[in-house]
Amino acid sequence: MSAKPEAEQDWFLKTRRKGPAPAGKTTFVILRSLDVFFQYYLLRSNGGGHFVQRLGGTAVPPSAPLALGLDPYQLLIWTLSIGSAAKQIFWTVYVAENVFEPGFAAIISVYNTFLNSLNLLLSVWRISTNGSGGVLGGTVPLGVLLYGLGIYLETVSEVQRKAFKHAPGNKDRPFSGGLFGLATNM
Predict the structure, then answer these.
(1) pLDDT tens readout for residues 142-166
(2) What is the separation, in whole angstroms, between the first and last Cα of the chain?
(3) Which residue blocks in the chain are alpha helix, DSSP H?
(4) Which of 17, 108, 170, 89 has the alpha carbon at shortest distance from 162?
(5) Fewer CB within 10 A of the end CB, N or C, for the chain?
(6) Is the whole-model pTM more than 0.90?
(7) With contact defined as beta carbons under 8 Å apart, do 160 and 178 qualify?
(8) Is the pLDDT reported for residue 40 higher than 90?
(9) pLDDT of 184 strictly over 80
């Protein structure tokens, strides 16, 4: 088995160093915040639906706007993107202790924007929805519940792990308790 290339090892080790990273964290927070507005633009302008149609698919037609020019289904999709961005921003600002270089922060933010945009496209493509024309029925409430529960449990486990790492006597000890311990054993 061959060893990892030296550049890859250096990159990996650099992402594990602890220390302040105001420029990287600021870059991440700004770009993740801008993603929320980009997702709103895609929904409000029906850009996702138009793109799906260009690919030969059938888009879920928007219904009457409920708020901010978005119908209930679009508002839900946008709210989920806000929740994900808020959770990642919270983690970056309050939980993360690693050095977060601005270039790396930009790469991660662009990757998240790509995935959010892909999720948005799939959410407005008729074949990948519940086929109800965007109505909040079917399995949507269960999905929203699981999304909220997942975001909550992930955040709590990360905060528990950080508290453990900062307790005297736990330096360099692995954390296997709390919710984090359950997740690592699944």
Answers:
(1) 888 999 999 999 899 889 888 888 8
(2) 28
(3) 6-16, 22-44, 47-54, 72-90, 102-124, 140-166, 178-184
(4) 170
(5) N
(6) no
(7) yes
(8) yes
(9) no
